[in-house]
Design brief:
It is a single chain. The protein contains two helices and 15 strands. It is an alpha+beta fold. The chain has a single domain, classed as Sandwich (Immunoglobulin-like), CATH 2.60.40.1120. The chain has a five-stranded antiparallel beta sheet, with no helix packed on it. Strands 2, 3, 6 and 14 form a four-stranded mixed beta sheet that branches. It has a three-stranded antiparallel beta sheet with strand order 11-12-15, with no helix packed on it. Strand 4 and strand 5 form a beta hairpin. 20% of the residues are buried. The N terminus and C terminus are likely disordered.
């Protein structure tokens, strides 16, 4: 009796596993197989935390990949923002990180004018611009970890946008 209960339990778990499709999402039509990988992004050999990393295929295909770096500067990469991994191939890499310092709202009685939010780029502009980035990465089967150096640490204030000025007057 005990043996048949064990067999029944194992059978139910096996059936659930098969029905779930092994737990993964099925890939869209035409998407190549994916290489599960991560990337360490650094500035001056220091991990770049909370940065956005985008991989744009050099061959012009539509299988872009992206991720955000964690507290160790490592990003897990996802194709089309939802499929874990990246198709094999060569990619241009764009890295960006911004900081926003909130402005001050205008007083309701009109006694003070507000100030706009201030925005800063924390990555050299060439690395956050697809046309200018010198970062190239080739994803290959069998390699699961990559490292990139995204220049030196910077804090470049963005120009004030007209909408910011209008919203504070």
């Amino acid at each position: 009796m005990k043996n048949s209960t064990s067999i029944m339990t194992v059978s139910i778990f096996l059936l659930m596993f098969l029905i779930s499709g092994c737990g993964g999402k099925s890939l869209p039509d035409g998407m190549p197989s994916l290489v599960t990988c991560s990337i360490l992004v650094q500035q001056d050999k220091i991990p770049l935390v909370n940065a956005n990393v985008s991989l744009i295929p050099a061959d012009g295909s539509k299988w872009n990949a992206a991720g955000s770096t964690n507290d160790s500067g490592i990003a897990k990469l996802y194709t089309l923002s939802q499929y874990e991994g990246v198709p094999e191939g060569k990619y241009k890499v764009v890295v960006s990180k911004r900081e926003t310092i909130p402005g001050v709202a205008r007083a309701s009685d009109g006694s003070t004018k507000g100030t706009p939010d201030q925005h800063f780029n924390l990555v050299e502009l060439q690395y956050s611009n697809l046309a200018e980035t010198p970062l190239i990465l080739e994803i290959v089967k069998g390699k699961s970890h990559y490292e990139l150096e995204a220049g030196k640490a910077v804090r470049i204030q963005e120009k004030q946008r007209q909408n910011d000025i209008v919203n504070i007057l």
